[in-house]
Amino acid sequence: MAKAKTQKLHYKRILLKLSGESLMGNKQFGIDNSVLVQYSKEIKTIIDMGVEVAIVIGGGNIFRGLQASEGGMDRVQGDYMGMLATVINSMALQAALEGFGVYTRLQSAIKMEAICEPFIRRRAVRHLEKGRVVIFGAGTGNPYFTTDTAASLRAIEIEADVILKGTRVDGIYTADPEKDKKAKKFDKITFDEVYKRDLKVMDMTAFTLCQENNLPIIVFDMNKKGNLLRVVKGEKVGTLVDLK
In three state form, how does the secondary structure of the chain look? Predict the structure, then answer.
């Protein structure tokens, strides 16, 4: 029955990238439980259809290493603290998903045996094949790399079909739509054009990894109910970044 459902899907294995700030909801700091519930329901819907889901979450709602370094803190120390913040967010989402009966595994790039598995590529792929959501915490495990880069790297390693970058805007625009009312949205754009227009989709390292490995990116509004399902079914939601 699961196979019949997956035939209707445009993407079979995805990596969902969420920002830490998205978990704040209307709060100024921390985690809004109502957002966790909403995201968990959306993810469960596509899991039940047979989609294999991996997730990377940022930590900006708790701690951001780059901002700490600008305030005088050692950059390496700040980045490791940011990695720990991503693990907190990952654990929160894991608990929320399991509350809806979704089987999950949390894998960390930094060893924390008491709370999560170490990242092992083959094990992660096996979890996905068994229908478990795999959440990758602690970024790449190295300072100076963002969670966008971690998302790109893990997506390539697990051979995901696409990176879905869930944001609070509904795609990529010619300018910041919150500041420029004349900004126009792209339905589809190439990697080269993103470079030429200097659009901020991901940091350069993450973006280049996707381009070099022919991994498409879809930027979409994760907060709109049903959008995640529409994306995996191949409907035109958000903005697709591809080679052509």
Answer: CHHHHHCCCCCCEEEEEECCHHHHCCCCCCCCHHHHHHHHHHHHHHHHCCCEEEEEECCCCCCCHHHHHHCCCCHHHHHHHHHHHHHHHHHHHHHHHHHCCCCEEEEECCCCCCCCEECCHHHHHHHHHCCCEEEEECCCCCCCCCHHHHHHHHHHHCCCCEEEEEECCCCEECCCCCCCCCCCEECEEEHHHHHHHCCCCCCHHHHHHHHHCCCCEEEEECCCCCHHHHHHCCCCCCEEEECC
* Pairwise CA distance, residues 164 & 14, whole Å: 7
Phi and psi angles of residue 224, each rounded to the nearest 5 degrees, phi first = -85, 120
Number of domains in the chain: 1
Q: Note the Cα 198 to chain centre separation in Å.
A: 22
State if pTM tops 0.90.
yes
What values do phi and psi take at 211, rounded to 5? -65, -45
Q: Which residues lie across from 108 on neighbouring strands?
A: 118, 137
Q: How do beta strands 217-221 and 172-173 pair?
A: unpaired
Q: What is the pLDDT of residues 119-154, one digit of tens each?
A: 999 999 999 999 999 999 999 999 999 999 999 999
Six-digit token string for 102: 């979704």
CATH number (domain holding residue 212): 3.40.1160.10
Give the domain extent around 130: 2-242
232, 7 contact by CB (below 8 A): no
